[in-house]
Amino acid sequence: MNPSMASYLPILYFAIMAAIIPVAGLAAMSLLRPSKPTPTKLAPYECGVASPTEAFDHRFSVRYYLIAVLFVVFDVETIFLFPWAVMYHRLKLFGLVEMLVFLAILVVGYVYAWRRGALSWA
Amino acid sequence: MSPTLAAALEGAAKIAFVWACVLGAVLPNLIWVERRMAGLIQDRPGPNRVGPFGLFQAVADILKLLMKEDVVPMYADRLLHTVAPLILLVPAMTTFAVIPFGSTIHLFGRDISLVVADVNIGILYVFALTSVGIYGLVLAGWASNNKFALLGGLRSSAQVISYELAMGIAAISVFLAAGSLRLQRVVEYQASGTFLGFLPLWNCFPQAIGCLIFIVSAFAETNRVPFDLPEAEAELVAGYHTEYSAFRFGMFFMAEYLNLIAASAMMATLYFGGWSLPYLHLTGIFGSLASIAVFAAKTGFFIFLFVWVRWTLPRFRFDQLMNLGWKVFLPLSLLNLLWTGALVLWGVI
Question: For the complex shown, is ipTM > 0.90?
Answer without folding.
Answer: no
